[in-house]
Amino acid sequence: MDVTGWLLRRAAPCAFVVTAIGGTGARLAVERAVRERGWRQALAPAEADLLVVCGPADSELDEALDRVWGQMPGPRARADASSPERVVEVLDRARADLLDAAAQRRDADERDRAARERAEAAGEEHMPGGLPMADRGEDRDGLALDRLHLALGPALTDWPAGLSLRVVLQGDVVQEARVHLVGARDGPSFWDAPRDTSRNASPETDRSPGHPRTTAAAALDAAQRLLFVAGWPAAALAGRRLRDALLEPGTGPGPDAELRRWLRGVRRSHLLRWATDGLGTVGDHAPGELRGDATDRWSRWLEWIEAAVEPDRSASEPVPTAPDTARAALDLVPELVVGRELAAARLIVASLDPDTEAVGAHTPERGT
Amino acid sequence: MSGAAPLWTALLVPVLLLAFGYGAAAGTAALRARAAGTAPEAGLTAPARESARLLVQRRRTIPGADTLLWRLGGALVPVAAVLAALVVPLGPTAVSDLSVGVVWFNAMEVLIWAALWMLGWGADSAWGLVGGYRFLVQGLSYELPHMFALTTAALGAGSLRVSDVVAAQDQVWFAVLMPVAFAVYLLSALAMAFWGPFGTPVGRDLAGGAAAELSGVDLLVLRAGRYMFLAVVAAMAVPLFLGGGAGPLLPGWAWTLAKTAGVVALLVWLGHRLPAVRMDRFTEVAWVVLVPLTLVQALVVAVFVLTR
């Protein structure tokens, strides 16, 4: 009896999703498919068996993807979702690859042989595992602590597409931070791009840019990312579901009642406010959408979402204007995260949520 | 009311813990499935399907890892859960009714500190290291209030023997007599199982934190161990605060199981409803608010015991 095959067929795949700049549409389709099939999304490559790449190929991103691929223990399969339309097809094929036990065994043997050869070639090693040791430096309390170099992104869950934040950590405190964009390209942001409006768009079915429902879906997308980072998967998953429902063309009444309930639940969470209050405070020099602390920023998203379900109440704030805000957000990241713990730094980035597709080929220079 | 069971009952302990742990995992998955808009029934089989996946997945070797500590750390979690459960009575009998049962429980549950630190440190990964740091801060925050809560229950009974604590609740449950201690115990239950709002040591923002580099059966052991731990802390709340096996009609063991299931369900529901607690902020609350509160609770109970 083939136990491996039997177990493989029962297992629900666990996908590690990496989004390239320009891959937001594909990511939305992948997240939706994964959610509806009851698959899981991996937090790290080590637990994943499916690598899903959303968006166009890019040579620098490929280097990161190769490392991710090497960290996946196997059985493993890769799905390149270059466009939203192909998502179902590539996921099905990747699932079939996972179930092909013979091919998976060949892959495993191949890797074992390569690892043995590398180990023999390395010969005598002076460092543990042949790796360089961390150097030391004074931290904020004057203690000599190891300085760890860590790249946050581009292959990180609930993280802006293509963003790579190179940080130096001591303990879990960020000492230095530099922003780099992987695969930056000119082109409209997914949320600003014109949609297919060939079927005569009525107010209910219109999902073109600037429409309250599109703005609300974009805000919901940002909010679900923040909620995942804030450690509230239940609210984040519900946010994803509502986002997908808003983007569905012409679903009649839509998810308005549920959206109101979700808004109430998130707004009322004292614990969430407590986690984000006072984080990443931005002064009046910044674009309006970014001002205040993290709590102010996600509260603003909730208002935009509410504007979609309460048409009478026009949003008090302006709707997001892409390129300038995105650039300002990116430039703000390094100075705001330095001196904070990793948990706070991730919440700050999630609350600024720079739309890396909107900045074009702009490359931020500044760093601290 | 007391008594040590025959030795073979020790084999029953991991089975019961696994059953309750599976229930907690399945309940969590079902609530998640409902939030995601899919059929909640699928959640009931989700932990089994995930286990099947992890059983097939290969283990990883990491260059530069302290493999012994790394593997030991994960394996220690279910072992600590089973050891802690030895003093938890099912109805009137526990596997071992030690004269210092409360202290034994506390000592076994502190093993988690070592387990998570070894797990985070051993993997030679920045994510793991930060996850390990986080749990140490978490431990420093919850452990003192938690120990005062345990002390208060022992104080109310005038004994560290778990069966004496149950016997002392003849008239009134300790959950009623010392509500603050009970609430703090439930809070620290979530924290020591690094689960739900206290799950940041293996959190999503750290790409899995202390568990970031685990795969396959190692990850399965850690996850199962964590749910077993959640189950054992819930089970211990029953003799400490909820009158043990006391109840009408049903036999003692049935009441113990029913109350344990109730506490597990409460913890699962809390984990579903609450976002993560940021540890750097919680530490202040733990030391400035919870420690004095539990001390005052202990004082009130002490006065009550003296004047009774």
Automatic annotation (TrEMBL), chain A:
<feature type="compositionally biased region" description="Basic and acidic residues">
    <location>
        <begin position="193"/>
        <end position="209"/>
    </location>
</feature>
<protein>
    <submittedName>
        <fullName>Uncharacterized protein</fullName>
    </submittedName>
</protein>
<feature type="compositionally biased region" description="Basic and acidic residues">
    <location>
        <begin position="101"/>
        <end position="127"/>
    </location>
</feature>
<feature type="region of interest" description="Disordered">
    <location>
        <begin position="187"/>
        <end position="213"/>
    </location>
</feature>
<feature type="region of interest" description="Disordered">
    <location>
        <begin position="101"/>
        <end position="135"/>
    </location>
</feature>
TrEMBL record, chain B:
<feature type="transmembrane region" description="Helical">
    <location>
        <begin position="110"/>
        <end position="130"/>
    </location>
</feature>
<protein>
    <submittedName>
        <fullName>NADH dehydrogenase</fullName>
    </submittedName>
</protein>
<feature type="transmembrane region" description="Helical">
    <location>
        <begin position="6"/>
        <end position="25"/>
    </location>
</feature>
<keyword id="KW-0472">Membrane</keyword>
<dbReference type="GO" id="GO:0009060">
    <property type="term" value="P:aerobic respiration"/>
</dbReference>
<keyword id="KW-1133">Transmembrane helix</keyword>
<feature type="transmembrane region" description="Helical">
    <location>
        <begin position="142"/>
        <end position="160"/>
    </location>
</feature>
<dbReference type="InterPro" id="IPR001694">
    <property type="entry name" value="NADH_UbQ_OxRdtase_su1/FPO"/>
</dbReference>
<dbReference type="Pfam" id="PF00146">
    <property type="entry name" value="NADHdh"/>
</dbReference>
<dbReference type="GO" id="GO:0003954">
    <property type="term" value="F:NADH dehydrogenase activity"/>
</dbReference>
<feature type="transmembrane region" description="Helical">
    <location>
        <begin position="172"/>
        <end position="195"/>
    </location>
</feature>
<comment type="similarity">
    <text>Belongs to the complex I subunit 1 family.</text>
</comment>
<keyword id="KW-0520">NAD</keyword>
<keyword id="KW-0812">Transmembrane</keyword>
<feature type="transmembrane region" description="Helical">
    <location>
        <begin position="282"/>
        <end position="306"/>
    </location>
</feature>
<dbReference type="GO" id="GO:0005886">
    <property type="term" value="C:plasma membrane"/>
</dbReference>
<feature type="transmembrane region" description="Helical">
    <location>
        <begin position="227"/>
        <end position="246"/>
    </location>
</feature>
<feature type="transmembrane region" description="Helical">
    <location>
        <begin position="68"/>
        <end position="90"/>
    </location>
</feature>
<feature type="transmembrane region" description="Helical">
    <location>
        <begin position="252"/>
        <end position="270"/>
    </location>
</feature>
